[in-house]
C-alpha cells in the first residue's frame, strides 16, 4: 500500500488499482484523478474541503454517515452512507464507521455524528481516527481487526494532544502510527518529532512515521 499525506488530516491510500481519499481538505502531492472513493469523517471545513466537487470530477461516491451523506446527495453527489458500527463492503475489502468524540456541523446545521474509519484495503488495515479525544474503546476496535497503520490526531485544542495520542497508540498497538491534525494553524502547533520519540520510547512494536504534506510512503 502507498500512503499519500496531503496535509492536516488528508490522506490517500493506494493499493493495486484502488485509490481511497480521506478528508480531502489538503491535497499537496495527491493526484486528484483516478479516485475510487472519498471518505469523510465529519462535516467541518478542515476535513470536507471540496469533497463534492472532487467526487463529481472523479465519478466516485462519498462515504459518510447518513446525515452528511444526505446533505451531499442533495447536491447531486453519489454517496455511500451508513452509520457508526456499520461496515460497507467494496471490491477491495471493507470500511467500517467507528466512533469519534467530536462534533459535526456545517454553517450551524447538524450533520450527524462524527466518525473514524477502519479501512481494509486488500488486507491492509488502516485506522483513520478522525477528530477525536482519547477513548478506551479504541482498544476494543483494534482488537477486532489488528491495525497496520494508525492515523492519529496530535494537535490538541480540538482533538487529542500528544500525551493522549501516545495513550491511544498504547491502546491501538499499530505497526505504524502517523500523526495528523497539527501545525496547519497556529492553535494546533505541535512537535511531531517529539511525539515520534515518545512512541519509540514507550510503545514497543510501533514505528512512528512523521510525514510532511506532499510526501508519500509505501509499506
Ligand atoms: Ni473537526
Ligand atoms: Mn478538524
Give Rg in angstroms.
16 Å
Strand percent estimate: 25-35%
Low-confidence stretches: none
What compounds are bound to the protein?
nickel (II) ion, manganese (II) ion
Protein model, in words:
With 219 residues, this protein is α/β, with parallel strands linked by helices. The chain has helices at residues 45-48, 51-58, 66-73, 137-144, 162-172, 192-202; strands spanning 2-7, 10-15, 18-22, 37-39, 62-65, 79-82, 87-90, 93-99, 105-106, 109-110, 115-121, 124-128, 149-153, 176-180, 207-208, 216-218. Strands 6-5-4-3-2-1-16 form a 7-stranded mixed beta sheet. Strands 7-8-11-12-13-14-15 form a 7-stranded mixed beta sheet. Helix 4 (137-144) packs parallel to helix 5 (162-172) and helix 5 packs parallel to helix 6 (192-202). The protein binds nickel (II) ion and manganese (II) ion. Nickel (II) ion binds at residues 42, 44, 47, 102, 131, 158.
